């Protein structure tokens, strides 16, 4: 029996892992080498978006004959296709370029936060085909209720995009907090008060799809590494600014998870011992100064002290504070500046530790723009040894709510590409 990587990958989708590991263990060394070569070629095409057979041979070290055979097989399986030379990124190129077939498979991505669930369905290149955001008070609802909403959201998006859910490879779910394993068992999570729960089982029961759960910032970081601003970058950080301040770390083109898949909780790094109380119970965390709640509470305190007047008459919101600060409200500008300064202090420490080539800022909080990021940049300059550390490129993303869900879908897509013998 010949079992290719793709056959093995498909088998993993439809049967328990244990059986497939047994199946893969039965392969002889030639079959394993063939599966590895397929994996390596598919992964190279994904990484380069479009690439010629000769370039693939140069990068993977395989012979051109082997590349020709394997790519012919991948084309037959509809996993890749030959681009029309007229569509090539570099016009006039004679070589035929190969690309991943976006319709080879699809994935659903779900991002869960305290007040809403975002859902997106993506193709194999992580292009969002349809998305929806559903407001839900997550902590007040039982998990079964949440699972029902996710089921409906995936069916809704699939129908909207004209796709059948049974053609999907899997579901990726991004959640805030610390993850213990990919079944969704938490060590600590701001949304869950109690201990162990297998959330992934509830989703798999409803959608008949394998479900993968990860920390939301890790999921977003992975989507940058595979499809976004980090594709050609060896070492970078992604800082996510929402109610929680999260972080993903890429070292040597790999997502760093640390022991037990624990995500990086940059927001709970203490920068001011004994300072403001944080929702995690400690005092002086970065989050206690920089998230939306912290900025709103500082603005309210400043308002009560008579430092400024709310002439708009509207309820205080982050959007209103941004508008007023941009219109010249100095007390509000200094609240954003303090948040930026604290954020910069934490990031300066990260730069000293990791020496990243770039730092990507994502999340709803990036809408504070220059009010937050200019003071942050000054703080970084002030607190890093510029003579020792190379300048770091900072990228502030133009944020779309579906980006979180796209990141979550990448968790599932990664499993599709995964080298099967690693499991
Ligand atoms: Zn904290």
What does this structure look like?
The protein is α/β, with parallel strands linked by helices and 423 residues long. The protein is built from 14 helices and 15 strands. It has helices spanning 5-14, 17-25, 29-48, 53-60, 64-76, 143-160, 199-207, 216-227, 287-290, 292-304, 318-326, 330-354, 370-383, 402-417; strands at residues 50-52, 80-82, 97-100, 106-112, 116-123, 128-135, 168-175, 178-181, 185-188, 210-215, 236-241, 245-251, 254-256, 358-362, 393-396. It has a five-stranded mixed β-sheet. A five-stranded mixed β-sheet has the order 13-12-11-14-15, with helices on one face. A three-stranded antiparallel β-sheet has the order 1-3-2. Strand 11 and strand 12 form a beta hairpin. Helix 6 (143-160) packs across helix 7. The model is unreliable at 1-20 and 190-194 (pLDDT under 50). The structure holds zinc ion. Residues 268, 278, 280, 282, 285, 287 line the site of zinc ion. Residues 268, 278, 280, 282, 285, 287 line the site of zinc ion (ZN).
Radius of gyration: 23 Å
* Category by helix and strand content: alpha/beta
Instruction: Summarize the main sheet.
Output: 5 strands, mixed
**What would CATH call the architecture of the largest domain?**
2-Layer Sandwich
Give the topology.
Blueprint: H1 5-14, H2 17-25, H3 29-48, E1 50-52, H4 53-60, H5 64-76, E2 80-82, E3 97-100, E4 106-112, E5 116-123, E6 128-135, H6 143-160, E7 168-175, E8 178-181, E9 185-188, H7 199-207, E10 210-215, H8 216-227, E11 236-241, E12 245-251, E13 254-256, H9 287-290, H10 292-304, H11 318-326, H12 330-354, E14 358-362, H13 370-383, E15 393-396, H14 402-417
Parallel strand pairs: 4-7, 7-10, 11-14, 14-15
Antiparallel strand pairs: 1-3, 2-3, 4-5, 5-6, 8-9, 11-12, 12-13
Helix pairs in contact: 3-5, 4-5, 6-7, 8-14, 10-12, 11-12, 12-13
The structure holds zinc ion.
């Amino acid at each position: 029996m010949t079992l290719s990587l793709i056959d093995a990958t498909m088998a993993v989708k439809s049967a328990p892992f244990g059986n497939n590991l047994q199946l893969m263990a039965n392969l002889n060394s030639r079959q394993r080498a063939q599966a590895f070569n397929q994996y390596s070629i598919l992964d190279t095409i994904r990484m380069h978006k479009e690439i010629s057979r000769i370039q693939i041979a140069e990068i993977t070290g395989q012979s051109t004959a082997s590349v020709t055979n394997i790519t012919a097989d991948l084309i037959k399986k509809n996993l890749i296709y030959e681009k029309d030379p007229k569509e090539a990124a570099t016009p006039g190129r004679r070589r035929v370029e190969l690309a991943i077939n976006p319709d080879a498979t699809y994935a659903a991505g779900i991002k869960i936060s305290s007040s809403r669930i975002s859902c997106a369905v993506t193709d194999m290149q992580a292009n969002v085909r349809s998305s929806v955001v559903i407001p839900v008070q997550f902590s007040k609802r039982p998990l079964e209720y949440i699972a029902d909403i996710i089921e409906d959201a995936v069916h809704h998006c699939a129908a909207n995009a004209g796709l059948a859910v049974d053609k999907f490879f899997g579901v990726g779910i991004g959640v805030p907090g610390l993850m213990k394993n990919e079944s969704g068992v938490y060590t600590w999570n701001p949304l869950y008060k109690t201990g162990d729960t297998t959330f992934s089982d509830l989703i798999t029961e409803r959608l008949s799809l394998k479900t993968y759960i990860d920390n939301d910032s890790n999921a977003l970081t992975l989507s940058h590494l595979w499809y976004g601003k980090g594709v050609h970058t060896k070492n970078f950080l992604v800082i996510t600014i929402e109610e929680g301040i999260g972080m993903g770390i890429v070292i040597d083109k790999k997502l760093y998870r640390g022991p037990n898949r624990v995500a990086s909780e940059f927001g709970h790094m203490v920068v001011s011992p004994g300072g403001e109380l944080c929702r995690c119970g400690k005092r002086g965390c970065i989050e206690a100064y920089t998230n939306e709640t912290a900025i709103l509470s500082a603005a309210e305190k400043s308002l009560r002290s008579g430092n400024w007047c709310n002439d708009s008459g509207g309820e205080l919101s982050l959007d209103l504070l941004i508008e007023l600060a941009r219109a010249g409200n100095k007390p509000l500008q200094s609240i954003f500046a303090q948040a930026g300064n604290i954020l910069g202090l934490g990031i300066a420490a990260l730069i000293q530790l990791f020496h990243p080539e770039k730092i990507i800022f994502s999340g709803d909080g990036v809408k504070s723009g220059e009010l937050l990021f200019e003071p942050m940049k000054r703080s970084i300059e002030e607190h890093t040894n510029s003579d020792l550390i190379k300048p770091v490129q900072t990228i502030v993303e133009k944020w779309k709510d579906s980006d979180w869900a796209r990141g979550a879908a990448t968790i599932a897509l990664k499993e599709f590409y995964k080298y099967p013998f690693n499991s």
